[in-house]
Amino acid sequence: SSDITAALSHERALARLAALVEWSNDAIIGIDKDGNISSWNPAAERLFGYPEAEVVGHPYLLLVPPDERMILFDDLVRRARDDDYVGSLETRRRRQDGSVTEVEIKASLIRDESGEPAGVSVIMREIAERKAAEARLRELELRYRTFVEQMPGITYINAATGDAQVMPLVHLHQRMEEWLGYLISEWERDPRFSFQLMHPDDREGVRKHHDETTVSGAPYRAEYRMLAKDGRQIWVRDEAVLVRGDDGEPLYRLGFLFDITDLKRAEAEVTDALAGQLSRCW
């Protein structure tokens, strides 16, 4: 009775496993010890275009592009021999129509009753779309990095805290070290560092504008002085937007700083010159 129960339990387990293989969205392919395909699920047919009857019994090499044949059945066995499992392996495989697609492979070693390798079970997932998306992302990152490196201002990202005096740094362009003489690590260590570097006479105005734009969601635009390590005062124009999450809560501020010291100096010279002319007229 116990043997019958165990046999029935084993059959049910096999049936569940068969159903999982049948309905899996990933291609699941069995390869015997001679390197021939021994099993082929519907997802494999959808991925490669071969009906099961046309591939079972044929070499696994059928799916391997000529320039990828260094990664063959023997190599999968070698990789899996130590722990019966091969971690993710990204490579290319060939479809029935001759086209080649990029796939992620995970393989498990199948052993016979004596413990010797009897084959390999391979799970394949097409990653061509993911690879294309990653390539597009890299291109966008390169464009952004090029833009940031070449623009005259400084980019920054601060975590939004609702407090103008506490601005944890997420990103700050390296050029800031040239502007003020302080290391980026000093901003990273102290979330109050930016506020402390503002001229004392400008802090209240900055804090007020920060609070107003946090509530209203309007773009943040402010001009104020920053104190360099060598004692210089640098006028900056600070323009930022508040980025919110799906729940509407502030996440971070993305902004640009522009050095307007020369502009402020020129404005002051023009003002002084006009004031001098007016005084002479009177």
Query: What structural category arises from helix and sheet content?
Result: alpha+beta
Strand content: 25-35%
The CATH homologous superfamily of the largest domain corresponds to PAS domain
Number of strands: 10
In angstroms, what separates the terminal alpha carbons?
120 Å
Q: Determine the CATH topology of the largest domain.
A: Beta-Lactamase
Give the biggest beta sheet.
5 strands, antiparallel
Number of domains: 2
- The CATH architecture category of the largest domain equals 2-Layer Sandwich
Integer average pLDDT: 83
Are there runs of 5+ residues with pLDDT below 50, and where? none
Structure description:
The longest helix has 23 residues, at 128-150. The strands form 2 sheets. Strands 2-1-5-4-3 form a 5-stranded antiparallel sheet. It has a 5-stranded antiparallel sheet with strand order 7-6-10-9-8, with helices on both faces. The chain is 41% helix and 29% strand. It has helices spanning 2-23, 42-48, 52-55, 73-80, 128-150, 175-180, 184-189, 193-196, 203-216, 261-281, and strands spanning 27-32, 37-40, 85-94, 100-111, 117-126, 154-159, 169-172, 220-227, 233-244, 250-259. Strand 8 (220-227) and strand 9 (233-244) form a beta hairpin. It is α+β, with helices and mostly antiparallel strands. The termini are far apart. The protein has 2 domains: 6-132, Beta-Lactamase; 151-281, PAS domain (Beta-Lactamase).
